[in-house]
Amino acid sequence: MTRGLKYDIPGRDWRIDPDQVLAQGWPGVFADAPGGSAPSPRPRSQRLVVEIGFGRGEFLVDQAERNPDTGFIGIELSHKRCLKMARRLARTELSNIRLLELRAERVVSELLTWKSVDCFWINFPDPWPKKRHALRRLLRADFVRDLALRLRPGGVVYVATDHPEYAGQIATVLSGDSLLSNGYAPMPYLPEVPGRLATSFEIEWRALDRDLHYFMYVRV
Ligand SMILES: C[S@@+](CC[C@H](N)C(=O)[O-])C[C@H]1O[C@@H](n2cnc3c(N)ncnc32)[C@H](O)[C@@H]1O
Predict the structure, then answer these.
(1) Does the C-beta of 140 come closer than 6 Å to ligand 1?
(2) Which of 94, 111, 155, 161 could form a disulfide with 151 if both were Cys (CB 3.0 to 4.6 A apart)?
(3) Domain harbouring 86, CATH code
(4) Is the pLDDT of residue 34 over 60?
(5) CB of 82 closer than 8 Å to CB of 54
């Protein structure tokens, strides 16, 4: 137990585990909600959106509120952040978010089927700035291929980073995948995207006047 953390969930707990997904499939997992029908071959939501590393979760909550008929999967490695998000969600009326406290690499390769996802959001992934840690970065060619295979044709992967060197790596691996096409071409990325909700990291980096890099790649 981490000291100072509150563990009680004041309502429905939307955290799920891999066994549930494997047993029920995503339509079943999303149908299992107040007001949702019993698991059936027809999903409650036809659209599936995934946020990787949701952090404090404000972006995920905002998206889910705006798109009540879409199923949202929030993936977060940090136990503390996942727990806090579960507590936060339990106080809302939202029933279209499911949380997984796991590494995104595992969720994507083991729990998401090919051509099933409409959109991935990866906002400000950890940059691992030290050279000897660069292999820990999430956006590598093998992971990008895994994401591309899970996207439906026309589906989109959005990535944002403040870190210039990581931005170079992200541009290389996204543009190097033959299943993806740059939605912002001829620009490799945009420095800002009007109307986009800022995440907590984004707000911090903007206050420090850092250059930001927004990527959008579409499954061909
Ligand atoms: C720099 S924070 C950004 C948080 C949030 N997206 C934002 O923009 O405010 C990166 C987040 O990704 C999570 N994370 C890092 N590696 C991950 C992985 N392999 N799978 C899932 N989450 C991961 C971290 O725990 C952290 O919450």
Answers:
(1) no
(2) 155
(3) 3.40.50.150
(4) no
(5) no
38-71 residue pLDDT tens: 444 334 458 999 999 999 999 999 999 999 999 9
The answer to whether 98 and 14 have CB atoms below 8 angstroms apart is yes
Nearest CA to ligand 1 atom 4: 55
Using CA atoms, how far residue 32 sits from 2, 10, 29, 76, in Å, is 30, 18, 5, 21
pTM confidence score: 0.94
Question: Would 170 be classed as within a structural domain?
Answer: yes
User: With contact defined as beta carbons under 8 Å apart, do 40 and 31 qualify?
Assistant: yes
HSE toward the beta carbon, residue 56, CA cutoff 13 A: 8
CA of 125 to the centre of ligand 1 (A): 5
Q: Residue 201: CB within 6 Å of ligand 1?
A: yes
What total number of domains does the chain contain?
A: 1
Which atom of ligand 1 lies nearest, measured to the CA of 104? 20
Amino acid at site 116: S
- Domain membership of residue 48 (yes or no) is yes
How remote is the CA of residue 54 from the centroid of ligand 1, in Å?
A: 6
Whether residue 50 is contained in a domain is answered as: yes
